[in-house]
Amino acid sequence: MQKTSIRDAVGDDARQMLAIYEPFVRKTAVSFELETPSVEQFQATLVGGLESHPWLVGVNDGEVMGYAYATQHRARGAYRYSVESSVYVKEECRRTGLGRLLYGELFHRLSDRGFCNAYAGVTLPNPSSELFHRAMGFERIGVFPSVGHKFGRWHDLSWWYRKLRSHPIGHGE
User: Fold this and answer.
1) How wide is the angle at C-alpha 69 spanned by C-alphas 66 and 19, nearest 5°?
2) Which of 20, 28, 100, 106 is the most buried (most CB within 10 A)?
C-alpha cells in the first residue's frame, strides 16, 4: 500500500466515503442502517458533523481509502465531553494499519478539543472488530442483547469505552 495521508474530510469526499460505507449497509449488520443513504443525505450528515466533531479521511493519490469520525454520544449537556466513534476502510485496505492510523489521529484530535471519552458499538459476532477495538485501547463494557433487527434476525451490540483524557480542557489539567 502506498503512503496514506490523513486529512480532514470535506463535503466533496462524500461520494467516495459512501462507496466505502455502502457494502456495510447492504451486506452486513455492522451498520444498523437498513437502506443506503443517498450521496446528498450522506454529504449533509458529513457537513453537519464537521461543525462539532472531526471527520478524517485516509487518502492515496486523491482516492479516499478509509475514514473515521466522531459524533455526539447523547444530546443532554452532561454528555458533552463524550463521543461515539466509527471507522470504515475499503476491503482491500483492511489489516494494513489504515484503521489504526485513522483512529489514532481521530483520538488525538478529540483529546486536543477537550473530549474525554470515546464509545464504540460493535455488532456481534465480529471478532475482528472486537480485536481491533481492544488493540486501540478500548475495553468492552457491556452488551445490548437483541437491540437491532436486520436481515430477518436480531443482533446483539457490544459497547466499548476508551478514555481520551482525564478532564475537559480548563477543568483540572
Assistant:
1) 40
2) 106
What's the length of the chain?
A: 173
Structure confidence by residue, pLDDT tens digits, 74-113: 999 999 999 999 999 998 888 889 999 999 999 999 999 9
Grid cell for residue 88: 470504515
Rounded CA gap, 173 and 162, in Å? 19
For residue 34, count other CB atoms closer than 10 A to its CB: 11
C-beta atoms surrounding 154 within 10 Å:
11
Q: Is 59 left (phi over 0), alpha (psi -120 to 50) or beta?
A: beta
Amino acid symbol at 20:
I
- Any residues with CB less than 8 A from the CB of 81 and at least 6 apart, and which? 114, 115, 116, 117, 168
The identity of residue 26, as a single letter, is R
Phi, psi of 12, rounded to the nearest 5 degrees: -70, -10
Q: Is pTM beyond 0.85 here?
A: yes
96 burial (CB, 10 Å; 0-12 / 13-18 / 19+) is middle
Peptide linkage before 54 cis (omega within 30 of 0): no
Task: State how beta strands 5-8 and 55-60 pair.
Answer: antiparallel
Using the predicted structure, report yes or no on whether residue 172 has a pLDDT greater than 70: no
